[in-house]
User: What shape does this take?
Amino acid sequence: MIIDSSSMHYTEATSLASAVARKLRRGFRFSGLFVVPENERLLLRAVITCGAEVEIISSSLPRDATGERAPSYPAISRLVPSAEWYERALYDRFGVMPEGHPRLISLLRRNDEPTTFSSIGEGVFTIPYGPVRSGVFESVEYLIESTGEDILHLGVGLASKTRSIEERFVGVDVSTGILLAERVEGIASVAHALGFAQAIESICSIRIPRAAELLRTVHAELERVVNHLDVIVRLCEAAGLAVAHARFSLYKEQLMRLRIDMCGNRFGRGVVVPGGIASLPNRSSRELIDCLDEIEDALKQDTDLLMRSPSFIDRLRGSGVLTVEEAETFGLLGPVGRGSSLSQDVRVDRPYAAYAEVGPSSPVLGRAGDALSRTEVRLDEIWSSFSIIRRAIRGLAEVNTSGLDSWQRSLQLLDGEALGWAEAPQGELLVLVALEGGRIAYTRVRSASWHNLQALPRAFKGDVLTDFAFIEASFGLSPAGAAL
Amino acid sequence: MPWLTRGLRNGIVTTHYPRRKDGYGMYWRAAVQVCSSNSSAKSDLDGIVGVAADKFALERLCPTEAISVDGVGIFLDRGKCILCGACVAARPDLFAFEADIELAVLDRRMLIVPRSEEEEDDLDRIKEELRNRTVALRRSVHIRHVDVGSDGSDEWEISALTNPVYDIARLGIFFTASPRHADILLVTGVGTPGMTESLQVTLEAMPKPTVVMAVGSDAVSGGIVQPGRGVGQLLDVDIWIPGSPASPFSILHGICLAVGMLKGDR
Ligand code: SF4
Assistant: This one.
């Protein structure tokens, strides 16, 4: 979506919070808040969405004449709780001061303040967990406040992992930009490449060839399946189910290898480029479909068994509950939101690539909002992804795919700014890109990992320490995508 | 006991590596090689003059400055390469993907290809040193992992080592939750300031001798995310594994190097 005066509302910084809150009362959800440079000033861009609609409300931040004080504005999170983390992060990164913020402590920078929450009573202590975790995990810091068994509160810190990757986009060309985009959240490279490429394609107002749309869809859905499988693998590991762990991790590996046959890379990198597709499958449609059918059959049998294993189900049922109200308040994304019956899925709401044609007709929803519900949503999405992939591959067989023209359009780079999006396996992804003179002026990324992580502490309600691994895994987050 | 009978079916999928060579097949883009006819092996004067004229154009092909051209020839630093394929697409006569999985090396300079013969000699010396240091490790080996700013994909590839295909437990290799039992430290990521201290604490808690492995091009050189960084600036690295991310086979190759399990090393 091109961002210009026709698609964007301007408002004074002093009334930005109330403008956003007003929209939320009309059914919109708060989707993101960015700070971008404009000449010598900073602009705030709030993104709100409602089904197919996306609106951007912008405010220019007043500059202090002396340049000594940080620009400030009345905090959105006074009225919109889900903006809390956004404003903390923007304060950390740009020094933009949200006045009246309920809890302005550092999230991305290390601070010496003790990060405690409730007043610590008798018999309550805090357990730091991370940044170095016990096992092969990305670094993230948790502070668990506990009585020894019950978890009372959870704090999250992202300082250790912050790579400042957004700054790396400044001034680079588009082909370097896509390489960076693939590495913002490396387990969802395809989704990030799609978000970025679609923003560039909007700016240059080109439509990519149909074959490229179909193949993008295939790669995006393969990525979804492996990510969802990864969550199942982690849950099996947490439950100590050695055989189930082996079986599901085998299917994940088989699909990673199928991706090698599709593009030479296990993460689908180098496939999506602005303008289309850069890497074509090395196997025929028939071979791909046969391979997928075989994996799906085996996976279905093991899934039936897993979902009848009390040692698995009992650990997930009732753990880490997020109510519908909480899901709405936080505008939770992806399988986490859908597990709490919040109906949203970018593939359905604002279809891109070939989803309008081969995509899901409605989001997969769960009811209970617990770890089990999130797992069931993921499993159902896996089956739906297999069907989407098959439809897309069949579609490919019907279009003309001879010659590079049928896969890629050449780009005439124009100046401008656009918002791209995709439904990553973790949920809605937003990528804001501005081009100037053929180079990237700036890029802002908002991953679902970031947005949903904010609600992770809310999911601990009377859960005990041994539930931690299950609840964390059921969120399916990547700290790399959260700690930008 | 339905799970039990299922578990038994896994035996056939497990790789025989390192006993027998294995890989991901011909489509796997493991690394980029400089085509030999244009490398330092050739002393054709015309070729070199031609290459020198192209110096700027060739070096500019690469977004991570992995390609360098000097009077001797074209060199490609796999530690910086993120396998984007730009050089291969632009100059298929000079650069090509290869599918080899044994990419781990014992010296940072070894990641620059093509290698000279002197360097190969050096390698034997380094190997010997490492072998002497790791004699005590040979029976069962425990691995600790620390992420110092990865993109998340490196962790997936390390975790994959426990799946039935690689099944490192068959080799007596295990991940451990405590640094006090760890022999090998796997480090992923570009080396963020926020992780420097935690990394040191982990390393110090490990019993000596330790083998430190930089896993993935981000860890080796900062990759494209933070060029010029990498974990080599934070601690002494014994084994370097390129790749964006490093593949499970390459990581396994590195671990095998560490414990001297490779064929001919015994
Ligand atoms: S593949 Fe890409 S990163 Fe690697 S050397 Fe070639 S141009 Fe550089």
